[in-house]
Amino acid sequence: MAIYRNVQLSFWTDNKVEDDFTPEDKYFYIYLLTNPQTNICGCYEVSYSQMTRQTGYNKDTVIRLLERFDKVHKVIKFDSETKEVLILHWYKYNWSKSEKVLTGVLGVAKHIKSDEFRKYVNDMVDSIKNDTLYIGYTYPMETSVSDTDSDTDSDTDSDTVSDSVSVNNNIINKKKDNIDNNIYINIISYLNNRCNTRYRYNTPNTKKHIGARIKEGYTEQDFYTVIDKKVNEWLGTERERYLRPDTLFGTKFESYLNQNVISEKQGNQNFNKGAIDWDNV
């Protein structure tokens, strides 16, 4: 039975990771998401000796980093008495409404030693069952980790770096703004990956253009199509500077979506060859 975890490339362009995480933070957070003790529950016990052996850090450094991720970054909770790590928001992209998945979560949760952590996980499961908890997109998120067992179905887990919620929060309201924010993140992450740029998803003008197109009925996939077409046409040409949200998602979005693409480089090559077939002269 092989279990492995995949970290999406968008981890490295996540705004929180880029702006707030040091190189040491990035390494340690990847460790927290992918170490052998992790599970579908998002809460696991791990000793200091395991963490020092697996990361190469000494105990003092591990303690300092755990406190930093708990108190400063607010993406985990750590119980020093039970030696348990709770990954906040693990549920948001690791779980689904599948009875099989939720049963598996509860099966692991009953072994959690921390009363506070166990209550948090159980409350999240109850909220999902009652349709009061928002479960986000699975692709492409800012930061994702999937858990795959080769002997089981294709149920996958992923985790996203985001603002912390209190461990005592029992219900997170399902709001349309959350869905929209994920669409903004997905689209801008895709654009940045294709063009090697660093546009931010939360710039007011960018959100205005994307939001306007969504209200007109365009889908998330339509944005990917426009990005692909214009990248194929403009990348590496003098028009490359127009590969930006304002241009791509503005009023010409519909024409970009429906155009038949012939790259500008290809067009120039055809023009330079001229009307005479010099190969046959």
Q: How would you characterize the overall build of this protein?
A:
The chain is mainly α and 281 residues long. The chain has helices at 15-20, 23-34, 48-55, 59-72, 90-94, 99-109, 115-129, 176-195, 204-215, 220-234, 245-248, 253-258, 264-273, and strands at 3-7, 43-45, 76-79, 84-87, 145-149. The strands form two sheets. The protein has a three-stranded antiparallel β-sheet. Helix 6 (99-109) packs antiparallel against helix 7 and helix 8 (176-195) packs parallel to helix 10. The longest helix is centred in the middle third of the chain and has 20 residues, at 176-195. The termini are far apart.
Q: Kindly, what is the distance between the CA atoms of the first and last residues, rounded to a whole number of angstroms?
A: 67 Å
Please tally the β strands and state the result: 5
Report the oligomer: single chain
Sketch the topology as an H/E string, one letter per element: EHHEHHEEHHHEHHHHHH
Mean pLDDT over all positions: 78
What value does the Rg take, in angstroms?
A: 23 Å
Output the number of helix runs. 13
- Which structural category do the helix and sheet elements fall into? mainly alpha
Give unreliable regions as ranges. 134-179, 270-281
The largest pleated sheet is described as: 3 strands, antiparallel
Q: Which descriptor suits the 3D outline?
A: elongated
**Biggest sheet, spatial arrangement of strands:** 2-4-3
The helix content is 40-55%
The proportion of strand residues reads 5-15%
